[in-house]
Amino acid sequence: MAELLIYGSYGYTGELIAEEAVERGLDPILAGRNERKLSEQAAELDCETAAFDLDDHDAVLDALDEVDVVLNCAGPFVETYEPMVEAAIESGTHYLDITGEIDVFEAVAGYDEGAEEAGVMLMSGVGFDVVPTDCLAAHLADRLPDATHLALAFKGLADISPGTMKTMLNYAGDGGYVRRDGLLEAVPAAYRTRKIDFGSGERSAVTIPWGDVVTGYHTTGIPNIEVYMAAPEPAIWAMRGTRPVAPLLDIGPVKSTLSNVIDAAVTGPGERTRERGRGYVWGEVTDEDGGRAVARLETPETYRLTVESSLEIAERVLDGDAPVGYQTPAGAYGPDLVLDLPGVEREDVV
User: Fold this and answer.
1) What is the pTM of this model?
2) pLDDT-based confidence at 168, cuts 50/70/90?
3) Which helix (H) or strand (E) holds 164?
């Protein structure tokens, strides 16, 4: 089978993906900036390595020239996507990443024409953000083709990795985003709340800046999109309470200090949590005539699903199933992509 390069293979999520890739016989090339960490990981997994910094364009290009697919697991992705995407297009390498960052989804979509000309696929968000939500959005759009409003929500992100926490820190000062009349619109943190039934009774949920405000529009064309996360009322009030101090989080020394705290204190969910945890996704579409459709997904724990979904897509690309240009998960592979992942169930509620 053609080769896969995993950049950021020794980070929390990258390591999980690399281990499973080896289990599947994919023989990935492990890559990143830290040669020592790569050597230690390679000794354990018996894989080739490629140590290079993304500031070195020639080194990135040389590494991607050797493979058919690169899976970028190195976040915050706003700092890593550009050199990787540009080298992928130049080298004719398909590009995947596990970002959840709205700016990155928007930026990678901007390379659509160049990717088409190069004959490569660019797909951001091949993990929990946004595979299950994107597939549920596509499923609901199929059920209500004239839908004008899409709401998505999830529950189950109880414990997060250092990389995810740093990404959240990067955007903590920005508030949130929704899509309104086809355009992204900045809104305050915890802009809106609603009660959502994920399958075991109604829970409070609050709007968050999730990738589907970009990908959901590309996949479905629905012009009004909001994404919610289940949260207890005290947490929602705390989110709203950060609004006055949010600009401070964009100050360099403050952000750097908090990033160091994350490195020291955040480890990500343990194996027991990953094996036993579950994720829950809800979606609703409505149209101007009062039509409404609601569906739910139950999934494995979020990081476990990310491992499964990212490698499912990587294997499809390696097998030649890679529509060129910028793609979303459900846009490329349909709403039932998520049902091909182990432990995922879908239910139409309305």
Assistant:
1) 0.90
2) very low
3) helix 162-171
